[in-house]
Every structure is written in structure tokens, then in C-alpha cells.
Amino acid sequence: MAKSLPNALIIGAPRCGTTSLHAHLALHPDVYASPTKEPQYFSSEAQEIQLEGPNDREALSHLVTRLEDYERLFEEANGQSVLVEASTTYIYFPGTARAIRQRIPDCKIIAILRDPVARAYSDYLRQRRNREEPLADFREALRQEPSRIASGWAYRWHYRTRSLYYDRLKEYFETFPTNALKIFLYEELSDPARFITELSSFLGIEPRIDIGLERLNPGGELRSQTLHRTAFGINTAGKMFSRLAPRSTLRRGRQLVLRANLRVPELDPDLEMTLRSGFTRDIEQLQELIDRDLQHWL
Predict the structure, then answer these.
(1) SS3 label, residue 83
(2) Is the peptide bond before 13 cis (omega within 30 degrees of 0)?
(3) How many whole angstroms separate alpha carbon 127 and alpha carbon 159?
(4) Across the strands, what pairs with 262?
(5) Domain boundary assignment for the chain
(6) Secondary structure class of 296 (helix, strand, coil)
(7) Measured distance CA(72)–CA(49) in Å, rounded
């Protein structure tokens, strides 16, 4: 039997709603969504992904680097018209667009883009939430970012750099026909019915607005580590509860606890202004590329 590869990819960007989008599509009867989110296979084809930062190899042990393992992600597909996976490094690493086109020439590409300042800060807060980022000062984390990258720390530490969208997205416009690309803005998620309708039209499937578009994987700092560890089955009590509760109940409960247990510290206004000025040129080029008004990001 012929091996299956996806015919649609969610390429990012990170912290822009890709988890919610992947979860919505996974519930659609005409879609088979890879059970592993973020396999990053085509980024690995384009170049070797560096994993020299603290805990990088363990945290990113789910990466798929062999074609046979990637194909295995889709072996349970059963006649669905859309096979999809989501990997947010696809919008980041040079050469990924060409690697995708070589393997899947007729692939449809979906991207969601967010205000680059908000995206970078959310990325940092996610690392803080996960108790990975040791620096409690976002400004210092940004200051150390170039040396971290030079030392081979993985992409999850590249807060500012992963908010520079233009060059990498330009590769997709140069590599794929325009009608194979669908670019959303993060704020469009606030109108789920319209978002789902546009997405479904692009993929050629019936819009299932009834499935909804639940906001998943929020960023922020934890108010209570104990509550988080219990809800996510990290401590003894949590592991016991995880064994007893139905999976659907666990998923809903964990998201409720996560949202209630997070606080989002206000970004320092001076730092925000400095960051935003640094993104100006990229935003101006991007809005010409995708033909969308991005003045609200400036």
C-alpha cells in the first residue's frame, strides 16, 4: 500500500493559535490530523536543528527526522480528503518551503501571523510557564538571545527572531502558487465562524462551525505550581487522577485550570516600544507581500 503524506500543512507561526487550529481540524470528519503536533520533519530535511540548550533534547524528543517515521504519522488515515500536520518551525528555518514542495508539490499551506511583539512575549511567557526559562526579566532574555542562538540553543529560545516573518514567508510565495497559500491574522480567531468558513473553503471541506475553535495552550506565568502539577499529572495526586478520569474530561479540565492559573505580567512600555521599532521594516515588507494592512502592528 502506498505511503501517505499530508496534503495540507500548518506552518506557524508559534504562539499564534496553531494548537487551536490543529485541534479543530482533528475533530472534522473529513480531516486526518497527525496525532503528533510539531514533528518538524521538513525543517529537519532543510537543515540540522540545533538542540544544545538546557533540556532541549528531552523537550524536543518528539521531533521526526526520518521519512519512514513521518509517513507513519499518517498510516491510520482512512479515506479523509485532507491530511494535515502542524509544525511551527516550517515558517522559521530557511529552505523548508523548498523541502516541502519537493516532497509534496500540491500541498496547501496555512499560516497564522500575530503582532510580532505580542508573539515574542507570549513565547517567553510559555517558557516561563513550563519552568524552562530561568530569566525572570524578558529584556535580559532578549539580550542573551543572540549568544544563545550562536551556542546552538534550540528554536524555542529564539523569541525575537521567530517574530521576523517576512524572509521565510517570502520563500513560500516564491516556491508555491499563490492559491496554495492561506494567510490568517491572529485577531481573526476572535470571529471563529468566519475563520472556520474561510479555512474550510480553502481546504475544500464543509465548514463545521459546531466543532468550534477552542483557545488552547495560553501563555503566562503560573500562579500555583502545585495546582498545575496536579492538573497535568506531574505529581503523585495528578498521576492518580489522570489514570481515573476520561481523556476528554482531562483535556477540558486541564485547559480550564491552565487559563485560571495563569497571570500575564504587563510588558514594560519602553521595552515594547524598542521592540516594535525593531520590527518596523519587517512589518512593512510583510504587508506588501501578503497584501494586508498591518498598520495596527506599527
Answers:
(1) strand
(2) yes
(3) 10
(4) 222
(5) 8-216, 221-263
(6) helix
(7) 21
